[in-house]
Design brief:
Layout: H1 18-21, H2 23-27, E1 37-39, E2 50-52, H3 58-84
Parallel strand pairs: 1-2
Length: 88
C-alpha cells in the first residue's frame, strides 16, 4: 500500500494544516474507491468513494483530494501493467 503522508504544507495552523495532522481526515483515505469525492461531514451516503472534508478547510480538503485523484489517474497505466504482470 502506498504511504499516506503530506510531505509539506503551509496551511493555517488549526484549520488547513489538518490535511496532515487530523488523523480522522488522513485515515479517511484508507480503502476508499477512486476517484475520490469529497463530501461535507454528515452529508455523505456511505459510498465507497466518499471522503469527509474538514469543516472550515474545504479548499484544503478539495485540493488534497484533487491531488490524489490526479496522481492516481497519472499512475493508473503503471498500476494496470503491474497487476497484469502478476503483481499484488
Amino acid at each position: 500500500m502506498l504511504g499516506r503522508l503530506v510531505i509539506e504544507q503551509l496551511e493555517t495552523p488549526g484549520l488547513g494544516d489538518k490535511i496532515a495532522k487530523d488523523t480522522g481526515f488522513v485515515n479517511g483515505f484508507t480503502r476508499v474507491a477512486t476517484p475520490l469525492r469529497g463530501v461535507k461531514i454528515g452529508q455523505g451516503k456511505g459510498a465507497p468513494d466518499e471522503v469527509d472534508m474538514i469543516t472550515g478547510a474545504t479548499i484544503s480538503s478539495r485540493i488534497t483530494i484533487g491531488i490524489i485523484n490526479h496522481q492516481l489517474a497519472r499512475l493508473q497505466p503503471l498500476i494496470d501493467a503491474y497487476e497484469k504482470a502478476g503483481g499484488a
